[in-house]
Amino acid sequence: MKRSVEDLTPGELEGRRALVRVDYNVPLEDGAVADPRRIRASYPTLEALLDGGGRPVLCSHLGRPRGRVEEGSSLAPVATYLEEDFGRPVRFVGPADSDRARDASEELPEGRLLLLENTRFLPGETSNDADLGRRFARLGDLFVNDAFAASHRAHASVVGVTGYLRPAVAGLLVRREVEMLDAVRRSREHPFVLAVGGAKIGDKLRVLEAFLERADAILVGGAMANTFLAAAGKELGASRVESGEFDTARDLMERAGARIRLPEDLVVAPGPDAGDGRTVPVDDVPPDAMALDVGQRTRESFGAAVRECRTLFWNGPVGLFEHSPFEQGTLSMARAAADATEKGALTVVGGGDSARALAELGFQDAVTHLSTGGGAALEYLATGRLPGIDALDDSPS
Ligand code: ADP
Ligand code: MG
Question: Is 352 a catalytic site residue?
Answer without folding.
Answer: yes
